[in-house]
Amino acid sequence: MSRVLNVAVIGLGIGKAHIAEGYAKHPDKFRVLTLCDLDTKRLAAVGDEFGVPRRTASFDAVLGMADIDVVDVCTPPALHVPQTLAALAAGKHAICEKPLAGSLAEVDKLIAAQRKAKCRIMPVFQYRFGNGLQRAKRIIELGLAGKPYLATVETAWKRTAAYYAVPWRGKWQTELGGVLVTHAIHSHDILTYLMGPIASVFARTATRVNAIEVEDCAVASLEMKSGALVSLAATLGSQREISRLRLCFEHVTFESSLEPYRPGDDPWAITPASPEAEARIAKALEDWRFVPSRYEGLLASYHAAIVVDGPLPVTLGDARQSLELVTALMHSAETGLAVALPIGKHHAKYRNWRPRARTARPRRPGQRAAGRR
Question: Is the pTM for the entire model greater than 0.85?
Fold first, then answer.
């Protein structure tokens, strides 16, 4: 019988999805013992729905519970780093929603803390999981895709004023960014998961859809370390919501489904360049076993890693790579210059990626940032 991990979920917005799609799908692996949320009505409703015995508004009380193995941090972004560090210090494993941190300096602080701790931190990138995406990953890992040529990544979602009525959203201080930090970060993580590290970035951002501080439209041009070229486009003003990835390799082209919130799921179109490539790919997938999507797939893999002390399905290194891209995108959009990666401690945005011209006040939709032409 496998070890059952006792979990406390902190924050029941996205945290409810962690329970419904993840922990509840694996009752042989996880037991959600505690919920923590400041909204007493939501706390009671989610607790009753999933039969969770303990409910509290005190994060400190959760840290004092000796039988909790995992603290799952699903709070607003500005709380992620202090709460994750506190969980680690209390001897708990930590799972943390994106964005993991508000700067590369904070990510490096988490990496340093984990080196000294007995427990580990797993950032959340649930969109890596799904049967279509994972089959593409297998083909690439086996070297069957060949040289990467070019990719296009689109995140076209819709967010209205009602979404931004939640007080912490749309503000640099509390959300830490807009479409690049909260929404397109998923597809951009998939890009590097499949195509490898980035060499340089050129970007433009704008706030055109909602009256908020942070960006809600962005485009970027990337050069990968492999030499492949990539275009990114992201908006929160699309009337039809899609997430789309198209990755062109020497021997195969991959195209994701258009499902905005399950881009890893089937159908993924896998188009070989030749009958020979098709035969090699078919051979590689003969023993394929279905991979569940989102939190179900992520948490199954996480449990296996914790129980045998194996590699986590998402690491702090993965989160750093993701937030390094965010930092480069923000710096390029602010300066109008291409930004080379990696980004180290002496970079101007290492401790804070927020564009200086955009921190003063919200702008009207369509208004340009000060100082930009």
Answer: yes
